[in-house]
Structure formats: structure tokens, C-alpha cells
Amino acid sequence: MHSEFRIKLRKSNQIKNKGFSLISLMVGLLVSSVSLLAMMGLYKSVVYHIYDPISGSQSFSIRNQQNMAGLLSIQNLTQNAGFGIETAATNTTLILVENASLTFNSHHQKLTTPGTLVPIKFSAQTGNAIFWEENTTLSTNSNEYHCKGILSDINTKAVYALTASNSCSPIATLWSNQNWDITRIIKPDVLDAPLTITASLDVGKCSPFESEVSKSLLESQISELAGIESDAQIKAGLKISVGWSKAASYTPWTSCLTNFSG
């Protein structure tokens, strides 16, 4: 009888030893809670670094993609400035404007604020828009010239490519009242500030094709060219620089517009 009781008691103790105590359950719950909180914190950190609208990697990638596409568009468009116009000249065929703005309500409208002309000189001059004429059809009639522009809105910081829908020559007097067909190349608030467009005349070198170089500079660099006859000494290349805002990872881009000679 006693032996049977001891056997049953031993089996009962064995069953109890195989179970969980309240303390062990509480410890397990605490460890699980801490692990869950750590995982939630890690998840929040990952989501923040990817999707944060200011510093997130996704926003940064989208911003850089837009900047790169905008830069390429500006490069391609501006290289046609003055093309096919024998008398192409700065401040007449191409103008620099500051404080111009555009409310993008439709694809066909005038500038909200025309801005003011900034005379282009040998010293660097800055604005937020440029407008120019081009004659890609090689017409002898100036009324058939095409006019285009690049504008970085001073309010929204969006960047637009503009194409005149009417006769536009001379652009130096008609830009402010011109009806423009508008194409947005950088959407609003991607940049921290409007693009800075700087224009200047320069006899030095600049990319991508280099401007004309003076005869005296040629003679000083290559002695065999002493006595060369060239009108390059009276010409200067038109240099355009585009400065991105600090949010972009690009340094300012500079190019010479080879259809202009001072």
C-alpha cells in the first residue's frame, strides 16, 4: 500500500516537473515583449530611413532621378539656342530673366510674373529663367523662328521647359506677354530652392565644346601659330551655368552655347 502511494507520488512530481511555473511564464512573456518592441523599433527605423519625405533613401533617389532628367533636358534644349540665326547675340536672341514665376494651371498660358531682364556681361549674371530664339528650319523669315525657355519657378521651385505658341521674335521684348506651351521637367518642391541660372561671356574654355579662344592666347600656347589670322580674338563664348539646390547631389553644370559670339 505504501509502496503504491510512493509510486503515485513520484509520478505526480514528475508530471509537475515537466510543466511551466507562473514565474517561468512571466519571464518568457517579458523576453517576448522586449524582443517584439526591439523588432518594432527596428522596423520603424528602416521605414523612416527609406520613406521619410526629407531624408529617406526613396525620396532622395526620386529627387536625384528628377534632377538628372532635368539636367539632361536643359543641356539638350539650350544647345539649340541661336541655331540658324546669323545675327544671334546675347541680350537680343537670348535673354536672362530674374524673379519670373509661373502658375501651372494649364499647358498654354502666359507667365504669372514676367520678371525683369538681367543684361548678360563678361561678369557672371544670375536669374531664374532664360529665353531664346532658334531657327531649326533655317527660314529667312524671323517670324518663323521658334522661341523656347527654361524657368525655375521662384515659389514652387518646379522647373519648366517653355515653347512659344506664337510669333516670338524679338524675344527680348516679347517674352513677357508670350503664350507658352509648358512642359514640367522637375515637379514642385523636389528642390530646396529655385535653380540658379548664371550667364556670362567668356573667352576661356568651357564644356562641352569650348568657346572661341583669342589669337594672343593661341600664340602664347602654340608657337607655330604665331601670325595666324583669325577673327576669334573678337569673339566670346556664351557660358551658361545651372546651380542645383543643396538637396541635390550634383555640382553646378556649365556649358558654352556655341551659336553665340558676344
Give the gist of this structure.
This protein is of the alpha+beta class and 262 residues long. It is built from five helices and eleven strands; from the N terminus they run αααβββββββαββαββ. Helix content is 31%, strand content 22%.
Keyphrases for this structure?
262 residues; alpha+beta; seven-stranded antiparallel sheet; four-stranded antiparallel sheet; 5 helices
Describe the structure.
By secondary structure, this protein is α+β, with helices and mostly antiparallel strands. A hairpin with a 6-residue loop joins strand 6 and strand 7. The longest helix has 30 residues. About 4% of the residues have low confidence.
The pLDDT mean sits at: 77
Task: Assign the structural class, choosing from mainly alpha, mainly beta, alpha/beta, alpha+beta, or little secondary structure.
Answer: alpha+beta
Strand order of the largest sheet: 2-8-7-6-5-1-3
Helix % is 25-40%
Uncertain regions: pLDDT < 50 for 5+ in a row? 224-234
Number of strands: 11
Residue fraction in strands = 15-25%
Give the topology string: H per helix, E per strand.
HHHEEEEEEEHEEHEE
**What is the radius of gyration computed over CA atoms, rounded to a whole number of angstroms?**
34 Å
Q: Alpha-carbon distance between the termini? A: 121 Å
Biggest sheet descriptor? 7 strands, antiparallel
Which word captures the global form? elongated
Total helix count? 5
